[in-house]
């Protein structure tokens, strides 16, 4: 425990009390236009959000909201947590890189404002897939992309995404190794679970939908969760039915409960949300902050989902099924 932890947790509780709740999404689901949802968000939470003209601008706004929320709490944290914060915030850069690569692969203009790595602005407009990767040569990301930059294979982008995910979570797990045993255990309770769920979804999809060897499946698994490398290797070599049975007998059994088939991963996001929500309420350690990060991600994801579902004209019932919330109504469909 560090001096100032009580002040940090008090600030977290206040910020969390301002989060949107399930009933807010029910109210937004009543509307038949994105403008209706934006007006609701303006009244309830974001005074300036209704000035935006498209989903892209709203996504940028929500990313900035995430960043500002974390910075508010960063001032309460001692320097020993700076490596974790830095590693956690790398996600924003990686998501921008992937978004740019996807657009360039489809010969579209990337809908990204700017990409700053270190103190350097990385050019991406009017670039090719290959030249953009070359522009990243002096960054830590280049090593995980360079072998695919000249590839026209459709799998190249997939391989880059998987490699960047491994890079991100490896750095995240390394960032907490110098923390106390208790802090490290709290990290495992939240981000260790997140890594486990990512691995389960990846291994299952690889076995069910793709013709991928066990060696390649294992190669793309992410280390740092509650499953060690031996366990991940074991899971990678199981047949699909054996793998499903093993997960059914684990603490992640809900992923396959009631005949579920993992498709979008929504059930795993809901499970992680539930675990973080429960942990947020019971811990007074650094796990409250780590749980808050997951809950913040969930709030933003729910906003983006309700806006997207509204844009596509889904019914109220369909919109609510895609929310990542602790309500039975959202469990009817969706995986």
UniProtKB/TrEMBL annotation:
InterPro entries: ATPase_csu/dsu_sf, ATPase_V0-cplx_csu/dsu, V-ATPase_V0D/AC39_subunit, V-type_ATPase_csu/dsu_dom_3. One of its GO terms (molecular function) is proton-transporting ATPase activity, rotational mechanism. Signal peptide: none annotated. This is ATP synthase, subunit C. Keywords: Ion transport, Transport. It comes from Peptoniphilus harei ACS-146-V-Sch2b. It holds the Pfam family vATP-synt_AC39.
